[in-house]
Hints:
The structure holds 2 protein chains of 2 kinds. By secondary structure, chain A is an all-alpha fold. Helix content of chain A is about 90%, strand content about 0%. The longest helix of chain A has about 35 residues, at about 5-40. Chain A is elongated. By secondary structure, chain B is an all-alpha fold. Helix content of chain B is about 65%, strand content about 0%. In chain B, strand 1 and strand 2 form a beta hairpin. The longest helix of chain B is centred in the C-terminal third of the chain and has 46 residues, at about 225-270. Chain B is globular. Chains A and B meet through helix 3 of A and helix 2, helix 6 and helix 7 of B.
Amino acid sequence: MEMEAAKLIGAGLAAIGAGLAAIGVGNVFGSFLESALRNPGAADGQQGRLFIGFAAAELLGLLAFLVAVILIFVA
Amino acid sequence: MQFDERRDLTVAGEAKVDPMHQFTIEPLFGSQDWQLAGYNIAFTNSALWMAIAAVALWVFVAGGMRRQLVPGRWQMAVETFTGFIDNLLAANIGPAGRKYVPYVFSLFMFILFANLLGLLPLPLAIVGVHAFTFTSHFTITGILAIMSFSIVLVVGFWKHGFHFFSLFVPHGTPVVMIPLIFLIELFSFLMRPFSLGLRLFVAMMAGHVLLEILASFIIDSSNAGLGWGLLISPPSFLLMVAICALEVLVAGIQAYVFALLTALYINDAEHLH
C-alpha cells in the first residue's frame, strides 16, 4: 500500500475514536440529567463532578483527533 | 480565505482551502529580525492578540473596581466572575482556597477572553483583518498548564515536604500493591500538565478547523457549478452558524474546565488525600 494512502486511512480510523468520545460525553450529560431530574436539590452541588467527567471523556476524543492531525500533517 | 498555492504533498490531495493556514504565526510590523541573546523575539500576531486579550481584560476589570455599595451593571458583571471563581475554589479547596483566587481568576479570564476574541468575525468589519486564537497553540496552553503544575508542586513540597509523595499511595492500599499503585499514580500525576494543556489547545483548534472546512465546502461546491453550489451551500452555512454558537459554548466550558482542574490539582497539593 502507498504510504500516503496508509496515512489517510489511519487518520480516518482515528476519527472513530472521536465518535466514541461523543458517546462518552453524551453519556456523562445524559446520566447527570437523568439523576438531576430525580433529585433536583442535589443537582447544583454535583456540577463540578459533572464537568470533571466531561473533561475526562472529552480528552480521549481530542487525543483521537490529535492522532489524525499528526498522521496527516506531521508523520 | 487563503488559497494554498504551494500544494504541499503531505496535505491531502485536491483541497484548495488550507484549513491550517489560520494558525500560521507571522511576525508583525517588520519585527522578524529582533534578537535577544541569540533568540528571535519577533512581535507576532500571537503576541499581538495576547496583548489585546490582556488589555481587554484589564479594561473590563478596571471598570468594575468602583467598590460601590449598590453595584452598577459593570461592577455587577465583574463581581459575578470573581464570585464565580471564589465559589469554585471554596467548593473544591475549602477555606485554604481563598489565596488562590487571584491566580485562578486571572487564568480563567485570560483563557476566556482569548477564546472569545479568537471567535470575533473581524473580516466582516475590516476586510483582511483576522482574529487569531492564540489558545490554539500548544506552546501557549502548555505554558499555562506548566504554571498551574508548578504551583501544585511548590505548594505541595512547601507545605508537606517529602510527605507530599503520600499523594501517590491512597489510604488503605495493601502493602503488596504499593509499588505498582505508586508508579501508576505517579504517571497519572505527571501526565496532568500535558492533558491540561492538550485539552484546551485541541478543543480550540478543532473548532476553528471545522469552521474553515465547512466554509471550504461552500467555495468548492460553488466552483463546481451553480447547481452544486445551491445544493451544498445552504446546509453548510446553517451548520457553520450552529457550530459558531457551539464554539462560544466551548470557549466558556474550556476556560471553566481549565480553572476547575487547576483548583482540583491545587486541592491535592493543599490537602493530599
